[in-house]
Each structure stands twice: as structure tokens, then as C-alpha cells.
Amino acid sequence: MRKIAILTFTFIIIASLTVTAKVQESSSGRVNDRYSKIIVTTMVVEALGKIGDPQTRDALIQALKSKEFFIRAYAAQALGRLQDKASIPFLKPLIRDKNYLVSVLAAVALVDLGDKDAEELLFAFLKHENPAIRANTIHEVGRLGDNFLAALNEMLPEEKEESVRVKLIEQLGAYRYKPALPLIRKALKDESAQVRTAACTAIAKIEDKESIPRLIQKLKDQDVLVRAAATGTLATFGERTQIDLFRKEMEADDSILEASSYVALANLGELDILPVLLEKIVATESPTIIRTEAARALMILKPHIFNLVEEALEETEILYDIPLLENLQFDYQANGRNLKLILTEALKDSENPLHQDAPLILYILDAKMALPALRSALSQENPEFVALTAYVLGEFRDKEATKYLIEVFEKYGI
């Protein structure tokens, strides 16, 4: 579940910037070009921070001076990840930036670099009257330790803003903060579907199996996202009593329910769904959510396949070192061809139906063999595709991609 969760916030950024660009496109080609540059530069900067190459410091400091707040914000975050205390003087002024996202990420970066004074600012942001500032701060501070998690837990009962409640539950779940469980269980009955969805997912991360009866009730929730989240959590807990429902939802008209059923059945070790998963990934009409969740289900099934092979070998009494199976490598085949190779080829062909989704699926499949092709794909002209590819290279922590990302930064940077 973790890999897809990581992507959500980033793709919200890409989507929001892309929509803005398309809205502006009719009025001015220059405006559209500007937003394309923001999309790409933001994702490149974030990727450089994740890769953590000290040689990127100068480029990131340059990005701090951008007129675009997204770029300044993620440049600040990236500098914090580099763990270079020489960046502190460049970050300090940004905590007073006119944009709150920049201020929040600069403060978090300073805390990462050992500047304790910035912690006070973050605690103040958690109490800010602007819910957007509270939400963005919550999204960033959970990883800074128990003091912040305790503060988030104290906020939850009093918080009125839906988007902020969602962020609180997400972060308390992400960092497995068990003292929050009573409030998270209560949130399963919240009037907001988004809050109920977040609560289902948080219960999975905290591994609260005592909530299984509550989650089964959520399978009848009126909201599709809540039902999908409950399905995912129950399967993560190995709850098989609802397996007939999960199988039925493989044929659901709603792509969210269909996708969640794939992952649920994979978590329950149902190997017979393999042909369906492979077909859905390469089918020309499959939406992104179906492709990505089918790929995730394939990865979940791999250990089950290894176990099956090991059991078969034991039954036939083949005498060799069975622990070597831990290093066994195999690749899924679709239409008689290596799936990773199909996706790698799709990176190069903008007319291929798999093209736009290929970087993300290759990441989910942990296809490091595709890294050279992903680096080359940064030279393509579609900004959204380049942005997604940059993000994926960052997630792979591909140090060899640094020079290619810098070239993209120099091409698009504003």
C-alpha cells in the first residue's frame, strides 16, 4: 500500500497544475508554457532531493529564487534531504515567505538540518486560523517525532475542517500512532466520506485487527472510496469471510471498486487472478487506476508464487539448497512477452496506449532494468510525461539520473 500512498500528494500537484495550464491555454500559449515549466521543474527538484546527490546543491539553491512558489517549496524540501548544514542560511529567509507552503517546507527542512528554533514555528502553524496552512503542516510534521504526533492527536477531536481532519488521520496512521486509535475508530462514523476513508486506511497501518467488525460494516458504506478502503484493510488483515464479495467486485462497473478487489485478492494469495491482472495492465482501454493497482497486485502475489514453488520442490524431494529460492528471479509474461519489456518499449512510443502510464507501472513493478530507458525518456516533449518520469526516477533514488535531471532543470527551470 505504501508505494501508491506516496504518489498521491505528488500527482495532486501535477494534476492541479495541468488543469490550470489547460484552462489558461486558450488565452495564451505563453501561459500554458509557463505552467508546463512549473510542473516539470517542481518534479525534477523533488527528485533531486530524494536522490540526495550533494552535487545538486547549487541547482537547488538556484531554485529557491524562483518566482513560482511550488518550485521554491520543493527546493527547500530537497535541501533538507541533502543534510547539508551549509544550506541553512539560504533556507532561513524562506520561513517568512509570502506563500505558506514555502514557509512550512522551509521550516521542516531547517528542523531536518538541526535548527530547533524552526520547531516552534511549525507548532504555531498547526494552530493557524487558515485550514490550508494547518493541513500542509500536518502533512509534513508527522515524521519529526512523537511530540508532533501527540500534538496532532490532540488536534483531532476539536478540528472542524474536513480536509484537516483527513490529514490528521492520515498522518497518525502513517506513523502508527496507537494512542490515536480510539479517535480513528470513531472517525469511521464521521459524516465526511473522506474522513471515513482515511480512517479505514489508518486502521490498516496501525494493524488494529480489533476493528475488523467495524470495517465489515463499512463494506456497505454509501461511498465507493470508503468501501474500497475497507476492502483493502480487511484483506491486509487476512480476513477471508468477505472473499466472495471481493471476487464479485472484480466485475464492478466502478473502476475504484474493481481495482481495490485486485489488491484485496492478491493480499489473500488468490493466484488464479493472475491472468486477469496481466490482461488489464496491457489492455488498451484500461484506465490508469486499473493498470496501477493490477501491477501492485502482481507484486503482492510474488511471495505467494515463491511459496508455491518451494512447496512443490519439497513434495518432489528435489535435493538442493531450497533457501536459494529467495534469490529466484522471474518476470511476468503478457501476450507471450516479458511485461517489463513491453512497458519499457512503451516509454519510447507516445502513440502506444501504455505510454503515459508506463513510468508509474514500471516503478510499481520495481523494474530497475528500465532505468536507462526512463533516463532517456526525460528528453521527450510532453511536460506531464517528463514530470512523471522525473518523479519515478526520484522514487528509485537513481543517482545515475542526476545529470539528466539537471539537464531538464536547465531546460525548463524558471
Question: How does this structure look, described?
Answer:
This protein is mostly helical and 414 residues long. Among the domains are: 127-237, Leucine-rich Repeat Variant, CATH 1.25.10.10; 240-327, Leucine-rich Repeat Variant. It contains 23 helices and 2 strands. It has helices at 2-25, 29-51, 57-63, 69-82, 88-91, 100-112, 117-126, 131-141, 146-155, 162-174, 181-187, 193-206, 212-218, 224-236, 243-248, 255-267, 274-282, 288-315, 339-348, 358-364, 371-377, 383-395, 402-412, and strands at residues 333-334, 337-338. A hairpin with a 2-residue loop joins strand 1 and strand 2. The two termini are 35 Å apart. Residues 1-31 and 319-328 have low confidence and may be disordered.
Provide a brief overview of the structure.
The chain is an all-alpha fold. The chain is globular, with a radius of gyration of 23 Å. The N terminus is likely disordered.
List the keywords.
two-stranded antiparallel ribbon, globular, 1% strand, Leucine-rich Repeat Variant, mainly alpha, 414 residues, disordered N terminus
Q: What is the CATH class name of the domain at 127-237?
A: Mainly Alpha
Arithmetic mean of pLDDT: 88
How many strands in all? 2
Distance between the termini: 35 Å
The run of helices and strands is HHHHHHHHHHHHHHHHHHEEHHHHH
Estimated share of beta-strand residues = under 5%
| Shape-level CATH architecture of the domain at 127-237 | Alpha Horseshoe
Strand order of the largest sheet: 1-2
